[in-house]
Amino acid sequence: MESIFDKLGLRPAERRLLVAVGVTLFIILNVYLVWPHFSDWGRLRGDIVNLETTLAAYQGEQARLPEYEAKEASLKGQGLKITTAEMGLALIKLVQPKAASAGVNVMQWSPSSGGNSRNNEFFEEHVLRITFRNTGDKELLRFLISLGDGDSVIRIRDLTIRPEAGQMKLSGNVTMVASYQKAMP
Q1: Is 65's pLDDT higher than 80?
Q2: Are 170 and 136 in contact (CB under 8 A)?
Q3: Are residues 92 and 171 in the same domain?
Q4: Same-domain status, 65 and 88
Q5: Domain for residue 131, yes or no?
Q6: pLDDT value for 117
Q7: Cβ atoms 183, 83 nearer than 8 A
Q8: Which CATH number covers residue 129?
Q9: Residue 57 confidence (pLDDT)
Q10: pLDDT averaged over every residue in the chain
């Protein structure tokens, strides 16, 4: 049987040179193409571990889905359920005693619907604008703090304060917003 070197008609020195060039080419290709990817296996193993951890966390949360649905159902039933017509009146009934007990002299009450821009399928927004005059700073502060007491749904959207003529009392406007849960159809 003839070897490849015999078929090519190479002498022993040419054979050694051809083998040396082949081995050198093999080593160079390994250095540039194979060795840089040795670390890929460790990185791939780390990625697999991270993905398995994430998958286990997602499956754990998915297993708690019935618990979350039960909690959602109980929270839906807890909201203050009043009709749209009563929402504006409820806001006034909530704010009026707080203003009186704080000593704020309200001159004008202006309730209105908040408009459809802030309403969504679960909550409806109502706005109450009051104008006050001849009120001290302590009384106004007490009134504003009382609006946030308890589980109030009221927040201040706009507040304008200016001194009265004597510089000892205040007057201004307060725009309050209340969000009420809509009754589910």
Answers
A1: yes
A2: yes
A3: yes
A4: no
A5: yes
A6: 45
A7: yes
A8: 3.30.70.60
A9: 96
A10: 84
Contact 103, 136 (CB under 8 A): yes
Structure tokens at 73: 């159902």
Domain that holds residue 148: 84-181
Residue 110 buriedness (CB in 10 A; 0-12 / 13-18 / 19+)? exposed
Would you say residue 78 lies in a domain? no
Task: Provide the number of structural domains found in the chain.
Answer: 2
**Residue 77: inside a domain:** no
